[in-house]
Automatic annotation (TrEMBL):
This is FdhF/YdeP family oxidoreductase. It holds the Pfam family Molydop_binding. The keyword Protein biosynthesis does not apply. CDD domains: MopB_CT_ydeP (cd02787), MopB_ydeP (cd02767). Residues 114-487 form the Molybdopterin oxidoreductase domain. It comes from Pseudomonas shirazensis. Keywords: 4Fe-4S, Iron, Iron-sulfur, Metal-binding, Molybdenum, Oxidoreductase. PANTHER family: PROTEIN YDEP (PTHR43105:SF4), RESPIRATORY NITRATE REDUCTASE (PTHR43105). InterPro entries: Asp_de-COase-like_dom_sf (IPR009010), MopB_CT_YdeP (IPR037951), MoPterin_dinucl-bd_dom (IPR006657), Mopterin_OxRdtase (IPR006656), Mopterin_OxRdtse_a_bac (IPR010046), Prok_molybdopt-oxidoreductase (IPR050123), YdeP_MopB (IPR041953). Transmembrane segments: none annotated.
């Protein structure tokens, strides 16, 4: 793919805090470039406000009393990206064939602007041509009727509202399919599986109020400064109250180190930033199981000594006895590992684990925050459950200021699950759906994301409908998947911007442009409202505030209704698609009828200041697990991969994590800077420990290709990339997603949750050949590689 390297590529360590002037500058640059404020100057003031719209970026909680500007650098970028004045109209496709566009970068495709009209792929000219909405619905409906339901997949990316998501899963099921994969299959599915088993709810238990009451916060594998920056405000307040924050991350992420609030004039002009983490432990990639076992081992020992000396216990024995099961085998597991093993596998000295344990033991109300660094591993589910074990040792679930806090990704990804987007029919109220809508919910388990990919490779999946997202770019094993994907008989993509998935249209490709969340959604002349659920299980109502990017756009709700009406035959179900399309309050009524406990009185409650919380039994210490207790779960083994030497000094195979820069939202690439990590103008880099660089015979600045070190008969390779010597544990490396997705074998996923193990890909390095152009650019900059 072209233009991965920008003419101004350079690497320079970043010494400032997260937020601050760097953030303000970055926001202004993108607002200016997209000319977004010219079109909708008030939009930023409405972001995350009771009378405004839910930010389209991350799923972090929205406070009841928001700041004047309740958004962050990356939220502002996401808004500007959607409100851009630029357009990708039918004339654009008249000028460019899809073969040509496949050489464009992710950034250039989306940056060209908003899609404006429905399009259909024309094989003869290799172009998208405009069509009418009616033709699109009719012909897609005809094809769907011809295919059998188990051959069709209904993907959802995690942005669509509760209303659209509820309709989407109903459409799929009335049609006859539970094939409802979504982005959480690549994201927090390890959390949903792990937490459900451990504490009887699939979601986190922490709310914003808990941040005000906690006395200790642990952070595992989440990059708050780039990926949920609004959380820096409650973290900053917590630090000011003296709350310790203990971080486990292979990289020293700037947002976890220091923060200057860009919305505080005093802080912006003053010399001080808030130190966020009081302890920072650079655990090896995949080393967290061992690290938490080390902390737990210390706690056991402290408890033993306290008992001998007649001091108060360190563990909460009353809680463990009354509320948990599995403690004895957890203790047995802890005792089975020597400190030498735990040090080797975690990459941390014993003293580091003891330091974390000491603070944990002193604290009465501990919260534990985590992200993709935990879930995207072969041991993703075990990681999540190990974190819960730690909390259970001192009764840190089900009391104020304590609990588990997975930071979700897409702004409504948690809500989509709540209203039925799941491949597992056992997770939806089948009786209610059947009684209300007069159809039989299919009993067969549907396909999640990895299963869908396997089905596409095998040819058993013949049609794909995407409600948002960039599936073909976000999944693993992209160079194996792309050729298979081209065989799809039907490919329907509902989207706001052009992306690589759209450039492989299969045999019959449709591109249906929809309204973004920030835009006013008028049905029969009346502006509609909608709702979402954030990362803390809090539900909110929202309205768009900007004029639509084009008069031809349709709302996601309208598109789903149109497709459903054209597909389902009379008598197949009794669902009032047209009435729902005209009045979203009726959809919410239907949601409340199916899920009364959560959604009763939705129409008033969703407008309460700060929204409302869905009931979570675990918060009341009611454990809806198999045993009726909270569960200590013992991890099977500590090794991430059998293929990688446990001793970092001897590895020619490095453990690669693929992650986000500060200038992207998933596959949406806003730009080529990763300010906090000191990278400017390029994404073609691999971060390595200096000792590994030398040991493997390279010097910083060398160009290398990365090759997957397992399954040698399949060549998986990406590059060339330039080596940056970086502060990362020996034996570990990091590079950017989605460019590296071709390296991840499809089968290399978490046990049980099937989340691709994007944070632990065993790779080897091979001298790479930069193009003459790349070299010239790099030399012209005289760049400094540190
Ligand atoms: N601006 C912006 N915001 C976003 C997104 C975005 O792309 N851009 N994406 C959204 C989505 S969908 C999601 S899921 C979230 C993702 O947000 P994050 O969960 O922060 O995801 P990543 O950027 O992939 O970074 C994961 C972090 O885990 C660390 N890590 C990797 N491996 C390990 C490990 O083995 N152990 C430990 N302890 N740490 C590890 C990495 O160093 C990195 O800091 O953000 C959401 N918000
Ligand atoms: N290697 C590696 N792979 C990963 C990850 C990783 O860390 N490493 N992270 C994984 C994670 S956590 C996730 S969540 C997935 C993300 O996977 P996806 O959710 O599939 O991808 P996105 O990049 O978020 O999708 C971007 C596209 O969504 C469309 N879009 C934007 N807004 C709207 C809207 O309002 N409506 C509609 N209909 N379309 C819209 C635009 O056309 C845009 O091009 O990727 C996963 N893949
Ligand atoms: Mo995600």
């Amino acid at each position: 793919m072209s233009s991965l390297i920008h003419p101004h590529a350079r690497f320079k360590p970043y010494h400032s805090a997260a937020g601050g002037w760097g953030s303000a500058h970055s926001v202004m640059t993108i607002l200016w470039r997209e000319q977004a404020l010219a079109k909708s100057p008030k939009a930023l003031f409405k972001q995350n406000k009771p009378d405004g719209f839910a930010c389209v970026s991350c799923a972090w909680a929205k406070p009841g009393n928001p700041h004047a500007l309740e958004f962050c650098e990356n939220g502002a970028k996401a808004t500007a990206w959607e409100l851009t004045s630029l357009r990708t109209e039918p004339e654009f496709f008249a000028r460019h064939t899809l073969s040509e566009l496949r050489s464009w970068s992710d950034h250039d495709l989306e940056q060209h602007g908003r899609l404006t009209e429905p399009l259909r792929y024309d094989r003869a000219s290799d172009r998208y041509l405009p069509v009418s909405w009616e033709q699109a619905y009719r012909e897609i409906g005809q094809t769907l009727r011809r295919l059998s339901p188990e051959q069709v997949v209904f993907y959802a990316s995690g942005r669509a509202s509760l209303e659209a998501s509820f309709m989407y899963q109903l459409f799929a099921r009335a049609y006859g399919s539970n094939n409802l994969p979504d982005s959480s299959n690549m994201c927090h599915e390890s959390t949903s599986v792990g937490l459900q088993e451990s504490i009887g709810v699939p979601v986190g238990t922490v709310t914003l109020e808990d941040f005000e009451q906690t006395d200790c916060i642990f952070f595992f594998g989440q990059n708050v400064g780039s990926n949920s920056p609004r959380m820096l405000h409650p973290l900053q307040h917590a630090r000011r109250r003296g709350v310790p924050i203990i971080t486990f991350n292979p990289l020293r992420e700037r947002g976890l180190e220091r923060f200057v609030n860009p919305q505080s004039p005093r802080e912006m002009l003053g010399p001080d930033s808030t130190v966020i983490s009081s302890q920072y432990h650079q655990v090896a990639i995949g080393g967290d199981l061992a690290a938490v076992l080390g902390i737990s081992k210390t706690l056991l020992e402290m408890d033993r000594v306290a008992h001998v000396e007649g001091r108060p216990a360190v563990l909460d024995h009353a809680f463990i006895a009354e509320h948990t099961e599995g403690f004895a085998s957890f203790v047995e597991q802890i005792n089975s590992y020597s400190w030498a093993t735990l040090e080797q596998r975690s990459g941390l000295p014993r003293a580091a684990m003891e330091a974390a344990a000491t603070v944990y033991a002193r604290s009465e109300r501990v919260m534990l925050v985590f992200g993709m660094g935990m879930t995207q591993h072969r041991h993703g589910v075990a990681n999540v459950q190990m974190l819960v074990n730690l909390l259970l040792l001192r009764g840190n679930i089900g009391k104020p200021g304590a609990g588990v806090c997975p930071v979700r990704g897409h702004s409504n990804v948690q809500g989509q699950r709540t209203v039925g987007i799941t491949e597992d029919p056992a997770k939806v109220p089948v009786d209610k759906i059947e009684a209300l809508f007069a159809f039989k919910v299919p009993e067969q388990m549907g396909l999640a994301t990895v299963d869908t990919c396997e089905g596409i490779l095998a040819g058993s999946v013949k049609a794909f409908i995407g409600l948002g997202g960039n599936f073909l770019r976000a999944i693993p094993d992209t160079s194996r998947m792309e050729p298979a994907w081209a065989n799809l008989e039907l490919n329907v993509q509902v989207a706001t911007k052009l992306n690589r998935t759209h450039l492989l249209p299969g045999r019959d490709g449709w591109l249906l442009p929809c309204l973004g969340r920030i835009e006013i959604d008028r049905q029969d002349g009346v502006a509609q409202s909608y709702s979402t659920e954030d990362s803390t299980g809090c539900l909110h109502g929202w309205r768009g505030t900007a004029e639509p990017a084009s008069e031809h756009l349709r709302a996601e709700v309208a598109i789903i209704a149109g497709l459903a009406e054209a597909t389902l035959t009379a008598g197949q179900a009794n669902i009032p698609w047209d009435a729902w399309r005209r009045d979203y309050a009726l959809i919410r009524e239907a949601i409340a009828a199916v899920y009364p406990q959560i959604f009763h009185d939705m129409e008033t409650r969703m407008w309460q200041r700060g929204g409302f919380h869905r009931p979570l039994p675990a918060c009341e210490r009611q454990w809806q697990t198999e045993s009726g207790k909270a569960q200590f779960v013992t991890a099977g083994r500590l090794d991430e991969d059998d293929d990688v030497s446990v001793s970092p000094e001897r590895r020619d195979v490095l453990q690669l994590m693929t992650l986000r820069s500060n200038d992207q939202f998933n596959t949406t690439i806003y730009g080529y800077d990763d300010r906090f990590r000191g990278v400017h103008g390029t994404r073609s880099v691999v971060f390595m420990n200096r000792s590994d660089v030398t040991r493997l015979g390279f010097v910083p600045g060398d160009w290398v290709n990365l090759r997957t070190a397992v399954e040698p008969d399949v060549r998986r390779e990406v590059g060339p990339m330039q080596i940056i010597a970086y502060d990362i544990p020996a034996g570990c490396a990091a590079a950017y997603y989605p460019e590296c997705n071709a390296l991840i074998p499809l089968w290399h996923h978490a046990e049980r949750s099937k989340v691709p193990a994007a944070k632990s890909v065993p790779v080897t390095l091979h001298p790479g050949q930069p193009s003459a152009q790349d070299l010239q650019r790099a030399l012209a900059q005289g760049e400094q590689i540190v």
